[in-house]
Amino acid sequence: MKLLAAACSFLLLLVVLIINVACVAESRPVANNSAVVEPPQRRHHDHGGHHHSDDNKKRRPTHKLLVFGDEAADNGNGASDPALGIRSRGWRYPFGSSDKVHGRKPTGRLSDGLVQSDYVAMIMGHRESPPAYNSDDWDDASGGMNFAVGGARALKAPGVPTLGKQVQQLRDLVRDGVVTDDDLKDYSVALVAYSGNDYGDAHDDMTLDALVTEVVDEVSSVVSDLLDLGVAKVLVDTLPPFGCSAWQAKGMADYSSCNYDADEASDKHNAALRERLGDEAEAVMLLDLDTVFADLVDPKEGSTLSAEFSERLRPCCEAFDDDGYCGQYNRYSICDRPDEYFYWDFYGPTQAGWRAVMRLLQGPIMAFLGISNLNHF
């Protein structure tokens, strides 16, 4: 009897297991055909192994970023042809050598790593700047797009698009339906990252005051065009103090101080820009690079973050002569620790430099855009 009872118990257990397996198998097609569907993923090149963290997967950015400007924001729109020399240097070593996100490889960014547009994007919850307009990294413009090109100007110059031309590229995408009204309304943010390249060029017999007026008129026009297209908020760079740039400090007892006489152009530009855009306070924010750069690199100034840099004015990557440039074969030297240098070359900050700048501006940007989640970088 005990043997019979055991056999019956075994058969009963076997039947239960068979029923459970059948139920599980039957439920699988239902799960696959449920109403919960993962959204399609945008295409992004890994550039050497970028990985999402679990926190980034959970935190979905709401703001879309549109980027216009020059080398402060370019993430790959500049030409890569080596025959173009200095204009294509961002695609060659040692550019990108500190950029772990992209496998320490050059990406067209004119720095040893990330640039301003990347950190603005991070403040909004993105991993990095939106894809470059000239790249194949995007399927649509729903998350934003970067139109900036190294060397760009407000006024016309051979071989580089003006800020107005970059806005026209966006306007063409709107016309073609690639960018929709839904992409722009409410949560779209434009960054106008202008570094003042026009002031390094000769413009006939134009006086500085006349040049400032023309440049600021054009920057203001670009901002107006963006707002007219439906962009909700616009961030506009003021100019850093020209006298505290590496190319001006070189002649000041070997990078020992700023050349304050060279600040005239940047000071006049910033004053005119504040006057022109002051009435757009609700929709436009001026990013005070003038004050922040001075706090970080001017020996007379100094913030907590400036102590992170053992070299504030000397560039990490320096050409041997006035005709050379960083990245030119056998005509430059490079420092051992770029993270201790504010400037990468004569033209812009290191990745560490841009990080420090944007950490000082992060709070005001968050307040302007109504962002409450602090993204550390």
Describe the structure.
By secondary structure, the protein is an alpha/beta fold. It has helices at residues 2-32, 54-58, 116-123, 163-175, 181-184, 208-229, 246-249, 263-277, 289-297, 351-369, and strands spanning 64-69, 144-146, 188-193, 233-237, 284-287, 317-319, 332-334, 343-345, 348-349. The chain has a domain at 54-242 and 263-290 and 350-369: Rossmann fold (3-Layer(aba) Sandwich). A 5-stranded parallel sheet has the order 2-1-3-4-5, sandwiched between helices. A two-stranded antiparallel sheet has the order 6-7. Strands 8-9 form a two-stranded antiparallel sheet. Helix 6 (208-229) runs parallel beside helix 8 (263-277) and helix 9 runs antiparallel to helix 10 (351-369).
